Amino acid sequence: MTVQTQTPPKPSPLDKFPYGWRYVPRTTPEGKIEFDQVPLTLEDALHPEPDDVMVNNTAHARDRAYLVGVFEARLAEDEHALVLDDVLVVWDVPELRQHSPDVSVIFGVRDKHKEYATFNVAQEGVGPELIIEVVSPNTRINDVETKVQHYHRARVPYYVIVDREQMEGPVTLIGYVWRPEGYARMPLDDRGWLWLEPVKLWLGTAGNCVVCYDETGTEIADYVGLSGRLADMESILGDEAEARRRAEEAAAAEAQARAAAEARARAEAEARAAAEARVRELEAELRRRRGEAELRNSPDEQPRS
């Protein structure tokens, strides 16, 4: 009798590293430095270190990239508005360890063009106004429970959760606004949309994706990698004219936005120059009047008895 055997499947890396991993140095007896790949814990996923490798999924990556692209385009003209993509935030709160929010929107930064590996709230003098976490099912409890408490302690005004219990959806939007006694739940409108006050946009869902809409309800396009995606669509659709038309429309929209920004900058510069000129005029007038007053009060100018 022949016994058929089947080769067991190779274990998935996720079996050993469900949350990700980090490399920890170790000195061998010979004095060499080697690195061990150590699995992360759920607590490590809550408070990651700079070089940790986190396990994510395509739905998570897609939503995060879309939100970052939309917010950056929305705030492009604000030289002090910063959008961070999965960057460590070190809080200015005793005993509150760092987090790495999926999306952080921060206003009032001194240099939005600086390369941030870590954003230190105490050093920068400002903290996130809006944080959005895109849930990964295996670390969901961190986002929907623990971070609600932590971000409230950090006084984050708006905390929004793109919640998925499974990668395939459905998607649920949960929004919180800061109150002294605790976060208050933000209401969804009749369409199931959530108003994001800091960026003046609606957040909704379509299928297993998040979608942003402007004040008029118009859907906001996905800005991330626009030129690359147009090239991909050109080959997929086999329609070079259509791809070229879309590229030209994108370029025209970008040029229009740039022209509007330059016009605003010129207007602000002119207004600033006019204000500075007026200040100089007033200062000159003040000096003149003070000079006349000093002449009147001079002993040489006093009437003789």
How would you sum up this structure, described in words?
Mean pLDDT is 86; it is low at 1-6 and 225-230. The longest helix has 57 residues, at 240-296. The chain has 305 residues and is of the alpha+beta class. Among the domains are: 16-42, no CATH class; 56-220, tt1808, chain A, CATH 3.90.1570. It is 37% helix and 22% strand. The chain has 7 helices and 14 strands.
- The overall pLDDT, averaged over residues, is 86
The count of strands amounts to: 14
How can the largest sheet be summarized?
6 strands, mixed
> Which percent band covers the strand fraction?
15-25%
- Shape call: extended
- CATH homology group of the domain at 56-220: tt1808, chain A
Q: Which descriptors apply to this entry?
A:
three-stranded antiparallel β-sheet; single chain; alpha+beta; 305 residues; six-stranded mixed β-sheet; tt1808, chain A; extended; 7 helices
